[in-house]
Amino acid sequence: MKSRLYFAKIWGIPIGIHPSWFLIFILITWSLATGYAPLASRQIDRILIWALGAITALLFFGSVLAHELGHSYLALREKIPVKNITLFIFGGLAQITQEPRSPGAEFRIAIAGPITSLLLALFFAVISFFLQKTPLFHISFQYLARINLMLALFNMIPGFPLDGGRVLRAIVWWWTKSYYRATQVACLLGQLIAYIFIGMGIISTLTGNIMNGVWLVFIGFFLHSTASASSQQTALQHTLQGVKVSQVMSRDLIKVSALTPISQLIYDWTPARGYPLFYITEGDRPYGMITLKEITAVPDRLRRFTSTSQIMVPFSRLVRVDPDTELLDVLNKMAQAGTILLPVMEGEELVGSISQDQIRQYLQFKSATG
Description:
The chain is α+β, with helices and mostly antiparallel strands. The chain has helices spanning 20-36, 46-77, 103-130, 135-155, 163-176, 179-206, 210-240, 262-268, 292-296, 308-311, 327-337, 356-369, and strands at residues 5-10, 13-17, 82-88, 91-96, 255-256, 277-282, 285-291, 313-314, 341-346, 349-355. Strands 1-2-3-4 form a 4-stranded mixed β-sheet.
């Protein structure tokens, strides 16, 4: 979900729209304008009905945003950063950068969204009650009350990645004292529920309700893929827990001077030395770093005349780790920095590097050896 349009910031959290949001916005507006709102009065101007349908659709997505802000507010209270919130075809997603540190924090963050939706359902229901004499507005707010109630109830289904699955994970985590086991249980239930949705969607399609059936199948596949990815991610975290950089890092350092031509780097490198990685040094002090990304950016004809200092990434801009850093922290730092490798420093001394390939090889070795 990388392609998104950011339009606001709330509490420092960027709020974005995925392109798929426009499709569901149009469908909801069309549904309200052609199927629901006209029931209020057949004498009302069609332009007004379509405008009200669009406004109601916007209020619905505002409710989804409020749901995600409920999660985000509690996450920030727990000192957990929130990278962004994205509205997309299946609703909304708050991207929290790290997992809660305790079952209590997990429970509070997870339950905040459904509680927010329940409060919104009550709020819209009260407005709808007082607008009974204006049927068109009454029906719009009644729709918002119902959809928020459905949003709260749907999200409380006890399967990951739904809020109910996270609540379940918090309870199992508290009971077993194992975050890994709790996540596996919640993800397994999430996959089971996904299959139920897919089955219901197929049956609905075969009995003639094609639109609802296709929608249920899409939801099922989304839930299954997310639950599976979360299960694999947790298994990865479980395997890497307690493993430090010093156990996986490469200590093979290729140091070159700042005046070395790029063509010389290409000539000197051999595949046996792993990923192309060169450190530019001034005496014993690291000055910069060059990887395949920087090398390939230089045209062939200019490599003889381009020195390492001209294309290197200055060392002051690099994220670094020390040999005692855990691999889970390394992966987080790589993701935040947008890189696949990091230099390893012991005090002020450059002692090696750690890459995603090395971590992947370690995981393959652990998998092969049980």
